[in-house]
Amino acid sequence: PAVRSRLLSLFCKSVAAANIFPQTITTIQEAVFGSGSSVRLKQQGMEFSVWVCKHAAHSQLKAMAPAVLQGLLGTLERGGDLAASPEMASSGAPLPTDHTSVTLRGFAYQATGALVQRVPESLAGRIDVAHRFFAALSAEPPGLRATVAEAASCLSAAFQADTLSPQQASELNDLLLASIGAHQDALRLCAVQWANRLFPLDHVQARWICVLAASDPKLEVRDEGARGLRLSPINLTPLEPSPLLPIPPPASPLSHDQVAGTAAASGSAPASAANGEGQEAMAVDGGAPAADKASIVLAPPPERRPDLVAMLRYAASRVPALLPPRAFGGPSVPP
Which residue in 30, 195, 215, 327 could disulfide with 34, CB within 3.0 to 4.6 Å? Predict the structure, then answer.
C-alpha cells in the first residue's frame, strides 16, 4: 500500500499518466474498489479520477466516459461508503458524515463536474442526475456544499434547452421552479444560474425564475436574477440626473445600415494599395484615419424577449392574487 500510495501521488501530477488508456481506469478501480485498498488509497484513487477527467485527451475521455461516470455515480449513491450496497444507499438513510465518506463524495462531485463539462453528451437527458445534485446542495454538510455547487454549475453544460425533449424540459423547469423557493442560498443561486444558461431570453418560465430571484435577500441571487432580466445588478432603478453633474446621454451604437449609409453619403473610398503613395484609408466620416474605424461600435442583433402577455399570464397562473387572469382572456376570478 505504501508503494501504491507513492505512485498515485506521482500520477496525480503527471499529464502523461492521465492519457494512458485503459490503464487509467484499471488504476482507479484498483485504488478505490480493490480488496486490499486502504482509506488513503481510496482517497488518492478518487483524486486521480479528478485529475484524469481534467487532463486526459478529449478523444480518450470520451471513450471512457460511460465507465467512469457509472463508477462516480455509484460512489455518490453509496454516500461515499464504498462498503454499502446501492439498495441500502437508496433506502432514504442519511448520508454518512465521517471524514472518509465526505472526502470521497467531494472527489466524486469534482470528477463528475469535470467530466461532464468536457464531455456533455455523456450525461445528456439525465434529469435524475440533476435532481441528485440539487438535492445534495441541501443534504450535504455545509463544508461540502461549495464543492457540490461548483460541480452542479459544470453539470449545466449537459442540459441545453435545444437538446432536451419537451418532457425533459418540463421536468427541468419544475426542478428549477421548486429550487428557487428553497431555504438554502446555494440551491436558489444554482437554480437561477441554470435558468440563465440553459434557456433563451424569450423563455417565460426562466424569466419568471429571474423575477423571483431579483427580490431575493441574498446579494448573489439578486445579481444573477437581474442579469437574467438584462438589468443592472448594481442599481435596478433608472439613473436620476444630478443638478450639479448632469449625466450625458450614452452614445448609441451604429447599426450596419447606418454605417453603410454614412459611408455612401461621405463618398469615402478605400485607399488603393497599388498606387505606392502610402495614402491612408479614411473612415466613414471622411476625415479620420483608418485606425479610428475600430472605434465604431456595431449594434449586436437584438435578443428575442418574452411576449409580455404570455409573461403576465404565466405570472397570474403562479400568483393569482397578483394579476387577475380574466384581464388576459383567462377565467373570471374575483379580485
Answer: 30
In this prediction the pTM is: 0.67
Set of cell numbers at residue 175 = 426542478
Predicted confidence (pLDDT) per residue in 74-113, tens digit: 888 877 665 555 454 444 567 777 888 888 899 999 999 9
The total of other beta-carbon atoms located within 10 Å of residue 25's CB is 17
Distance CA 130, CA 72 (A): 14
Q: 254 — phi, psi (to 5°)?
A: -85, 135
* Strand intervals (E) in 125-176: none
Asked whether the bond before 66 is cis by omega within 30 degrees of 0, the reply is no
Residues 6 or more apart from 118 whose CB is under 8 A from it?
53, 54, 58, 61
Residue 45 CA: distances (Å) to CA of 12, 82, 308: 9, 13, 53
Q: In the predicted model, what is the mean pLDDT of residues 282-299?
A: 46
Specify the residue for cell string 426542478.
175
Point out which residues pair with 298 in neighbouring strands: 254
Contact 50, 147 (CB under 8 A): no
Q: What is the pLDDT of residue 323?
A: 53
The average confidence (pLDDT) of the chain is 75
End-to-end CA distance of the chain: 73
Q: Which residues pair with 158 in a beta bridge?
A: none
